[in-house]
Amino acid sequence: MNRHELAKLRLKQLLPSPPSGVDETLSDQFEIWLRQDVVPVTEELLNNPAFRRIISAIGQQLFGDDKNERRVQLNGFADALTACAQAMVAAATKFGVLDALADQDRTTDENWLEEEFNRHADRRCVVEKMAMRPWFDLVDGDDFWTPRCGLFLRDSDALLTRQFRRELTHSQLLGDHVTELMLARVGFWTRRLSMAWNRLQPRLGERGEPAFADLSSVFARFLDVEERHRALVAVWRTGSESRLRNACMVLLQTYVAYHSAPQLAWLGFTTQSLTVNGATLQPLFRRQGILTQIKHVTANQYRQVDTQTARLVDLEVILQIGAALEDVAAMYQRGVHADDLIKEARAQYKLVVVVRPRMVFWRGRPLKLEWDGTETMWNLMLHLAVQAEGKLPIRDYVLSGVKTNRDLSVRKSHLMKFLAGAPGGDDLAVLIEKRRSGPCYLDIAPETVRVLDLDADEWTVDVQEFFQVDAPSAEAES
Q1: Parent domain of 181
Q2: Are residues 286 and 409 in the same domain?
Q3: Domain end: 238, 255, 290, which one?
Q4: What is the distance between the terminal CA atoms of the chain, rounded to a whole angstrom?
Q5: Which of 346, 308, 312, 173 is closest to 246 using CA atoms?
Q6: Does the bond joining 283 to the residue before it have cis omega, within 30 degrees of 0?
Q7: Which of 42, 127, 150, 237: disulfide with 251, CB 3.0–4.6 Å?
Q8: What tens digit of pLDDT does each residue of 207-264 get?
């Protein structure tokens, strides 16, 4: 029985049967389970490139390069939303029906009277604000560990924030808050636009033929926004990817909350920041609650006898972690394959040299060269890559068979010609430098080089799989 199966078994043993509920003793046992079972499982998953790729993709796809397909999609929605709101305001103003865009729920807000008498209050309706693109972004990186549940606005707007939170249905304490709150913001703006359109359409229709052109234009823009909204939801919520992404985030948040010294340098978090985030997360697992004491009256009857405050684990959170363990089961059982490590490296580094089996990747693509049987050139290529990681030059005495400076120059020349024989290899070849009567080296930044000496049998790696034509990552192209 592996750690993953053991964690699921212990959870099953701990879960209470109604109506006993959770007391402080059981809460202590659940926290022991989190530390001693869930955290070790997550630590093993952190070594899995598939797990890291899923977590990293949240930031890469939403905060990364504007050329990223999903970022382009989100930007397209934001542009369409703003353009539609501007067209609505322009048409309503032109035909004197701006009151049709007024927020119908403003007077239902508990603080609206106070704001009405505040001469500095912003009295514009939501659509007018939307036309000014009031948000920093539709996605907020600060939602990564715990949800902020806000609209990420450029200027504070208490009324708009309350309107958003009244409609907010995101209730999970753990999970992929970044994506879910992004979709919540997108949904909020779309619904507000729809409400305004439903009021504006008949009012413009009353203006007859002079308003038909504006009405048609606004309608076309509104349909475009709705279509883009549906596409966003489909991309981020359809299929197993969404569930797996959420499960990975649940386990990562548990790891940060209950590991004594979490390490996530690959995500860009320092130890200090993780300590702060862990302290913020822990109260989500266990917090002040009401402990109800009951008495067994008959075989099927119970009676409440007392209540008292106590620090109890949130059973919903525990069940969510249990579901996450189920969702990552296939990933855990599959383990870490050499192919996964190679794919991860080629997506992150310009130059990747795999020791066994011999492969060289440049800018995300494999160089189609037969390295077996070319010991001298492979030896030089490998040493160049190894030393490039530490930015150290190769001197002639490092390589076997190199007795003079001329020998090193000849070997360098042969390697450059060999690399140039592969599509794209000439770009790598020109980076091999040699000082006169001096060392040979690769003129490349150390952080862009990765040498993989995999702890795997060569026959388990399908070399031909990597020779399939595919587009390199944006990072590899940079």
Answers
A1: 61-238
A2: no
A3: 238
A4: 45
A5: 173
A6: no
A7: 42
A8: 999 999 999 999 999 999 999 999 999 999 887 889 999 999 999 999 999 999 999 9
